[in-house]
Amino acid sequence: MGHPRDNYNNSIGLDGSGGEGLSRVVTFGGNNAGAGNIHTLSAVPSSDPRTMRNTDGIDGNEGSPPDQGAREKNEKSKLKNVDITEHLLTLDEVCIKFSVKTNASNPQESFGLSTGQAAELLATNGPNTLTPPKKKSSFQKFMVCLSSLFNLMLVAAGVLQYVLLGIDFKDNKINASITPISTLFIAAYWLYCTYPSIYMGAILIAVAFINAGVEWYQQRKSENTLAALLKMIPAKTHAIREGKLDTVEAAGLVAGDVVFLRMGDKIPADCYVFSASDLKVDNSSLTGESEPQERQAGNTMRNPLEATNMVFSGTLVISGEAYAIVVRTGDNTVLGQIAGMTAGEEKAQSPLNHEIAMYVRIIASVAIFTGAVFFIAGMCLYKDFPFAINFAIGTFVAWVPEGLPATVTMLLTIAAKRMAAENVLVKDLQGVETLGAITLLATDKTGTLTRNQMTVTNIWANGRLYSSTRGHNDMGEPITNADASGVREIIAISTLCRSVKFDRTDVPVEKRQLLGDATESGLVRFAGARIGSDFDEMLPRHPKVFEVPFNSANKWMLSVHRLAHAEGPLTLLIKGAPERILRLCATIIHGDAVVPLTDEHRKQYDETYEYMASRGHRVLAFAQLQLGGSEYPEDYVFSKKTQNYPTGGYTFVGLASLEDPPKHGVREAIGRCRSAGIQVMMVTGDHPLTAEAIGRKINLVVGETREGVAKRMGRAVEDVGEDEYDAMVIHGEQISEMTDRDWELVFRKPEVIFARTSPKNKLEIVTRAQAMGHICGVTGDGVNDSPALKKADLGIAMNESGSDVSKEAASMILLDDNFASIVKGIAEGRLIFANLKKSIRYTVTHSTPEVIPQILYIIVPLPPMITPLMILCIDLGFEIMAALTYAWEPPESRNGLMKLPPRKPVTMRSAAQLRAYNARHPPPPLDPETGEPLKQRWPSRVAHTLKAPFTRVWWQDRLEKKEGEILVDGDLLSWSYIEAGLISTISLIVTFFVVIYCRHHISPRQLRLMAKDTSVTYFNKDSPDYTYGGRTFSGSDQFYALNEGRTGIMFSIYILQVFNLFICKARFRLPFGRFMFRNIRTFYGFGCGLLLLVIVTYIPPLNSVFNSSYKSIPLYWLIALGFGGLLLLYATARTLFLRRSRPIKWNNTIQGLHMHPTIWSTRHTTKSIEV
After folding, report:
1. Of 318, 220, 347, nearest to 9 (Cα)?
2. How far apart are CA 1169 and CA 879, in angstroms?
3. ∠ Cα 313 6 545 (to 5°)
4. pLDDT on residue 21
5. What is the pLDDT of residue 947?
6. Letter string b/e over residues 219-233, b meaning 16 or more CB atoms within 10 A of that residue's CB
7. Which 8-state DSSP code applies to residue 857?
8. How far is CA 912 from CA 747, 909, 959, in A?
9. Closest Cα to residue 197, out of 234, 239, 168?
10. What is the pLDDT of residues 800-821, one digit of tens each?
11. Average pLDDT per run of 10 along the chain, which is 1171 residues long?
12. Catalytic, out of 257, 278, 444, 781
């Protein structure tokens, strides 16, 4: 019954005894044979646990089952120096020790600490927070950035310069007269002019360090940003202070606080349990134990980690509830005393990071290969080792986009900030792009799609349908008599068979804050309004003696009360899922009497159930059994383990329906998701009819089901073809019997609802979707959702209504619990992918203009048109500043990105390709001890990598045409390296020749002849004179002519890239219009680039360092402006051509979607029934 996170438990008071009451520290040995074996026992008086730290050691490995696995052993081996002793004390001794007042028999009436006590202890001992774990130092993180492939290549290039100097020191020295312009730069300038290899090597290595520093800074900034965002959701807990149950921040807890723990909570501190009901905790994060551990009042174990009356900070409550006293906080907790426990595991690489890494490896391989080829060519043609080395260095430096890693990190960081502003909190940057790539969204209903505010609408009892609130098309009669047969019993069961807690009892029920599930809260408010002032007296008058809490497996809650009747003192009450309850019943209250349950009664039940569920209401059933006094006397002891209570033969009382209306904006949000090509599925514990009715209100289902088609056409369900219906509603009980073909059919349908599901079912759904190739997002707020949240590519939890367990498992949190925020996040994720692609498209375009001059230098030959230092100035100077402006680039149109299919859509072809890929790449063998995949040693990995290109599988993987869009695709490479790259190259070559010819009267032919003459070196200041056409060019004239041509090249690349910066903004539209200028930071980016270029050109001695010329005049920039216009016209023609040859595949319009405000969606016409 109710939502799967429902928490139907009662606090059963126990005295908490279980130890001898001695205050002492117990030390356990490391090789205990069994649970609780004491190797050493020292009766040392313990100090106050609020200040006591690490006095003795406890090995937490006692009692571990031999088949528990290596992980549990490794985790438990860390549990040392734990100073917990309170588990050996009685409740009274613990209360005295911490000066706290409790009530074991009625724990919710405990007084707890006073506000003054709590404030004083908090000021004395500090907040309940852990000291941050030791992380990698900044130096270590910097070295990781420095060891990236691009940076290592730059360092290697720098080292080669020194190797070159060592091989031929004399030839690497230039004898030139030095006239420094400023004494500040004398040493550096002299070094550059005298020993260029030393200077160049230092610059290349320095650039690697600078590039690593930029990447390190961006990573650090992103870490700080994410840490600040996570502080937006402080952990909270329920504590009793001065007799009032209130929600407080976990950081404000102190030793002695009485806390209330319930299913879904993350335990905020080490606590002594003095009252519990079916409490089970997940200690896997602490001890590695995979099975839930039962906890209760009382203890017989010596080892605190095995004590049944202790729960520990950081572990999770997966069922039941408890009242406990905080005995350790902050660093004094077991978690705080375990070294290395808070260190995180390595994160899997996201699809985007994988694509970027693959691109980096490809470019690096191309750079190394071309560098090696042209080194060999230089040696063969000129037999000059220094020349060939310098040429190879220039070639592969030209290939490498040095600023790309820092650009990607910054783009993702900025996107994470924007998503936080939209109430979408990502725990790591990988979630930013994953949200934009999801193809399937499996969402919970209660609290996610609906408001989680339950209101009782109808009651069916004694054969009559009642209405508690008159509404649109409501057929029930008003409830005028709360003592009517059947109604009275439903109210009594709602009052007694409950686990809801109140913050206070001195005000009417409707004004209280209820701690519990929304379904049960709705029933309690309904019962409280009908009973009035006697409500609080009901439970004390008829106390609970036994309880079986609700869980997602049985889907009902059962309790036994001292409710006397003619046959005995005890009455069993039960409520839950109607079909489950009806199965357990043999009689029914009908006609003011208890009569056998007949087919006629079942028919009335079915009609009423269908009516209630078809309106989208949650339906619960109620039953009772008056226990015979002879078999079940007043002091009878019930047991869950032996199930010594009746499990059938109950009396059916009636049904109650509760309405949980959809949240505002959900209808439109789901409509936008579906319009974006994302398959949205509802996975709920509700009845199929309820789930379908809600689905039709919120755009989840607009088509017909198979049953609906059969009913409309008067045909048998089996005769309806698969292509005749679009919607499916699948009962959770069918999932275990579904075949692979059944799952393929399900995922082909656009509208699917899974009803009456269990946590196991939800996990199976996610696993099957991923096997089909779906990038799967899962939303949830309860404990039962956590396995699926962990398994999904992107788990999305709710902040306000979500349990601590779900938030722990998720990788993204909706701060406002609004499903519509997911749509904003998807749009943001798609935008960041589009902008990353635009940024890379822009950034790598300059590679061709940098590489081709290197090729002309050796093949034509021509003088060195561009130097490695100029390339670095371009790549890490104005290029990176302009590329970063794409982080703020708005979409081309308001909803254009949300009308495109996901970048990796799932089709039958893609699913078949995935299965074939998995068959070619079987998973690695598992370690028999740990169960984890075995990792190859590095020699084996290197050998496998080198051998892979010579295998058929390797080529098959790379040549297979895959569905969807990747970050660096053929279109991007074609534009950047061939089309725009060649136009830019032609522009810089023309500019170079025109500047040298018009300014210095040296023709291209003479440039070639001078460069081809190997007997003498021209274009240096000390070069011999060269006479041509009656003019004599001194070495100085040649040097400055070449530098002025190089300056023209740098400005040509810059101007063409400014045009390209705007062209790359347009993907679907022509590169014209106001949208091109909406990002004001674009102008800041290329403005800063222009300023840098002017500085290195016109300010000495930088112009000498970068081989530029301050004599360059802007007139010759017009050549580049002309080619920029040509590039713009070509891009326009290209776009028009691609529109015809490869039109954009927009998503099909879904007929029947209603995109008006959700408030109207609550109006749902239903048929009337006679009862």
Report:
1. 318
2. 72
3. 90
4. 33
5. 85
6. beebeebbeebeeee
7. H
8. 14, 5, 16
9. 168
10. 777 777 777 788 888 888 888 8
11. 36 34 31 31 33 34 40 46 79 92 88 92 88 73 80 77 66 44 42 55 78 76 66 79 89 93 87 90 70 85 86 85 91 71 46 74 79 80 74 72 69 79 78 85 85 86 85 72 89 90 75 78 89 86 89 85 92 94 93 89 92 89 94 91 91 92 87 92 88 90 91 89 91 90 91 88 91 90 77 85 75 83 87 88 88 85 84 79 86 85 88 85 76 75 82 84 82 92 94 92 89 83 83 87 92 94 89 86 90 88 80 90 95 92 86 67 34 26
12. 444
Name the 3-class secondary structure at 958: helix
Contact 575, 1 (CB under 8 A): yes
Q: Identify which of 858, 868, 850 has the alpha carbon closest to the alpha carbon of residue 1012.
A: 858
Determine contact, residues 77/58, Cβ cutoff 8 Å: no
Which residue is listed with tokens 């986009």?
401
- Is the separation of the CB atoms in 527 and 491 below 8 Å? yes
Q: Which of 458, 440, 442 is nearest to 690 (CA)?
A: 458
Q: What is the dihedral of CA 226, 232, 234, 236, to 10 degrees?
A: -140
Question: Quick one: pLDDT at residue 199?
Answer: 66
Q: Which residues of 27-48 are buried (b: 16+ CB within 10 A; e: fewer)?
A: bbeeebeeeeeeeeeeeeebee
pLDDT of residue 874: 83
- What is the model's pLDDT at position 351? 66
Q: What is the 3-state secondary structure (H, E, C) of 1074-1086?
A: HHHHCCCHHHHHH
| Rounded Cα distance, 1102 and 1043, in Å | 12
Inter-helix orientation angle 847-859/351-382, to 10°: 10
Q: DSSP assignment of 1037-1058, as one string?
A: HHHHHHHHHHHHHHHHHHHHHH
State the DSSP string of 963-988: SS--SS-HHHHIIIIIIHHHHHHHHH
Neighbours of 252 (CB within 10 A): 18
719 is catalytic: no
Q: What are the residues whose beta carbons fall under 8 Å from the beta carbon of 856, sequence distance 6 or more? A: 862, 865, 989
Q: Which tokens sit at 958?
A: 């790379």
pLDDT at position 586 is: 94
1089 within 8 A of 879, measured Cβ to Cβ: yes
Which residue has 């390190």 as its token pair? 216
The helix/strand/coil state of 588 is strand
Residue pair 1067/838 in contact by the 8 Å Cβ criterion: yes
Closest CA to 144 of 227, 219, 223, 226: 219
Closest CA relative to residue 576, chosen from 1168, 1164, 4, 1154: 4
Task: Yes or no: say if 862 and 856 are a contact pair by the CB < 8 Å rule.
Answer: yes
How far, CA to CA in Å, does 527 sit from each of 504, 530, 535, 565, 609? 17, 5, 8, 21, 21
Q: How far apart are CA 995 and CA 1113, in angstroms?
A: 9
SS3 190: helix
Give the residue from 605, 618, 607, 543 showing the smallest Cα distance to 576: 618
Q: Assess contact for 844 and 827: CB atoms under 8 A.
A: no
The dihedrals phi and psi of 267, each to the nearest 5 degrees, come to -65, 125
Q: Which two tokens stand for residue 95?
A: 């209360």
CB of 750 closer than 8 Å to CB of 729: no
* Cα separation, 486 vs 654, whole angstroms: 7
Q: How far apart are CA 333 and CA 569, in angstroms?
A: 46
- The pLDDT, as a whole number, for residue 616 is 84
